[in-house]
Write a structure and sequence with these properties.
417 residues, alpha+beta, eight-stranded mixed beta sheet, 11 helices, globular
């Protein structure tokens, strides 16, 4: 009789949706879009704590459609960025979203960078990306004001309006989007489903949960009862606008340090015609710490309590010290820019809005270099999706959708589903 009562209880559950997505950035909205495209009729709800979409990483990046040249061949970043860039351009064209394929230069300014530059040429070719090697005279044809010993030109790089892409994904998905819905509690029961409570007291019941919470993805995973094995350590990226945008025609990058997932301070002519310079990468004092004045002691304490934070700091303190110096000293930041663009002066740099990168750090201090997606009972967690996640959002969304729909299909044998 006891088991019979449990079965009746399960049959009577009223679900608000089949799949509940937490996070209204470009990855969460792409997942919703992919689910409804792959399985029409699937009911999807998206909970976003802000009053609109794309308020954090999606809306605060440099707007670059990345080619995929930097990423290890065979990695998710490499495969999804190359595929995603092509798909994103088609998506923008289909929905008349502002975009442009500008190409970019990656410039070596010191002899020590030349082997790494040649390594990028090889990596680009392995990833199927067309790359041209340039000498100083050829560089000047693309960027007359840029100086360097050698460069490579990557023709598939571009820029677009990622916020507009996110809005279009939300509209085209047909999902119910609830803004101002901050998740504070998750109750997951393998035989019943997932119930999520928001700060406003609303409860949403779903069969499967998808976590695309970005800066808060590890916290959401733990709320759901899954230990992610990593923690998000936020890195603020600070930008300047160039007062003389005529100095830069397109996109110009330094040769990145392969030990870090950051690309260094670069020059980006955006879709609006303005030129942004940045970002650097400094630890933020809050997950949404867009300025030095934003400090959340609980979040700082949580980061310091994670062993990986200390191990990361010991391993990379020299790099971090340089980034911190460029954060607090405009002269130091200007000096970094002048390596690429000698004509720039401190007066040319106008402070612009900063962004925060949600960087996953493992217990041993390793900075997770690839996209990281994990599954639990009735859950799919996107745990590491910083740049180039916006570029790769359509393939990431399909992968998340595949896993969510697989979990949904597996529930058919459960009573009441």
């Amino acid at each position: 009789m006891h088991y019979r009562s449990r079965e009746v209880e399960q049959v009577r559950i009223v679900y608000d949706c089949d799949v509940l997505v937490i996070g209204g950035g470009i990855v969460g909205l792409s997942a919703a879009y992919a689910i409804t495209r792959a399985a029409p009729g699937t009911q999807v709800t998206v909970l976003e704590k802000e009053r609109g979409p794309a308020r954090h990483q999606t809306g605060r990046n440099s707007g670059v459609i990345h080619s995929g040249i930097y990423y290890r061949p065979g990695s998710l970043k490499a495969r999804y960025a190359v595929r995603g860039a092509a798909e994103l351009v088609k998506f923008c064209a289909e929905y008349d979203i502002a975009h442009a394929i500008t190409g970019k230069l990656i410039v070596a300014t010191e002899k020590a960078e030349l082997p790494r530059l040649h390594g990028l040429v090889q990596r680009g070719r392995e990833n199927g990306i067309p790359v041209r090697e340039l000498g100083p005279a050829q560089m000047a044809e693309h960027e007359p004001e840029v100086r360097g010993l050698a460069a490579i030109h990557v023709g598939t790089t571009g820029v677009c309006d990622f916020v507009a892409v996110a809005r279009q994904l939300a509209e085209a998905s047909g999902a119910e989007i609830r803004y101002g819905a901050e998740v504070v509690r998750i109750d997951r029961r393998p035989t019943l489903g997932v119930a999520v409570r928001t700060a406003a007291g609303a409860v949403v019941r779903a069969r499967v949960l998808v976590n695309c919470a970005g800066l808060h993805s590890d916290e959401v995973a733990r709320l759901a009862g899954d230990e992610p094995g990593m923690r998000i350590v936020p890195f603020r990226g600070e930008y300047y606008s160039l007062a003389r945008p005529e100095l830069v025609r397109g996109l110009v990058y330094p040769v990145p340090d392969p030990a870090f997932p950051f690309l260094g301070v670069h020059l980006t002519r955006g879709i609006d015609g303005g030129v942004h310079i940045g970002p650097n990468a400094v630890p933020a004092l809050a997950r949404e710490g867009y300025g030095w004045g934003v400090v959340r002691p609980r979040e700082v304490g949580a980061a310091l309590a994670w062993p990986g934070s200390w191990r990361m700091a010991r391993r990379h303190w020299r790099y971090g010290a340089g980034e911190l110096r460029r954060s607090v000293s405009k002269a130091a930041f200007t000096g970094a820019v002048q390596r690429l663009l000698p004509a720039v002066t401190a007066d040319d740099l106008v402070p612009a809005a900063a962004g925060v990168r949600a960087q996953a750090v493992l217990r041993d201090g390793t900075l997770v270099d690839d996209f990281l997606i994990k599954e639990g009972e009735r859950t799919v967690h996107v745990l590491n999706a910083p740049s180039p996640a916006a570029t790769a959002s359509l393939p990431i969304g399909r992968e998340v959708a595949r896993r969510a729909l697989r979990a949904l299909g597996a529930l058919g044998s459960l009573v009441g589903v």
